Amino acid sequence: MLSRRDALVKIGTAAGVAAFAPRLGRAQTAMKAEPPSVISNPPRDFSRPVTYPDPDIITHDPSFSALRVGNTPIQRLWTGGMWCEGPAWNGQGQYLIWSDIPNNRQMRWIEDDARVTVFRQPSGNSNGNTFDHQGRQLS
């Protein structure tokens, strides 16, 4: 048997859902729009020279188009990771690090010679990298 308090909570919850459900349905219907495709057609060939502006850099929201820089192409620096993310640039050391999470390591691309090395292994499956103002890495 439900207590009076539990019954009031259930009734109030049901009434709240019923009150907002029609508005939710309208909002979802109104927001249906086809986003720009993120698949290059034809597929990108990284062995060819880059064209400017890069056709594969798109803005999902047109209000950000003015912020797009035309001389920053997508470049493939390295392949061989399983699931890589969390890139961070170290301005003091002039290198880029990122996490290869399933392989429990962090990789480093050195700007001077475009070499990729293991930065840290094991890395504790870390991700979300950045550097503070003193050059210390935070993950």
What is the CATH topology classification name of the largest domain? Thrombin, subunit H
Count of extended strands: 6
Residue-averaged pLDDT, rounded?
A: 80
CATH architecture of the largest domain: Beta Barrel
Low-confidence stretches: none
Helix coverage percent of residues?
10-25%
As a whole number of angstroms, the C-alpha radius of gyration is 24 Å
Distance between the termini: 51 Å
Q: Give the class-level CATH name of the largest domain.
A: Mainly Beta
Report a brief summary of the structure:
With 139 residues, this protein is of the alpha+beta class. It folds into three domains: 1-32; 34-74, no CATH class; 77-138, Thrombin, subunit H (Beta Barrel).
Structure write-up:
- By secondary structure, the protein is of the alpha+beta class.
- The chain has three domains: 1-32; 34-74, no CATH class; 77-138, Beta Barrel (Thrombin, subunit H).
- Helices cover 19% and strands 21% of the residues.
- It has one helix spanning 4-30; strands at 84-90, 95-100, 105-110, 115-120, 130-131, 137-138.
- A four-stranded antiparallel β-sheet has the order 1-2-3-4, with no helix packed on it. The protein has a two-stranded antiparallel sheet with strand order 5-6.
- Strand 2 and strand 3 (105-110) form a beta hairpin.
- The termini are far apart.
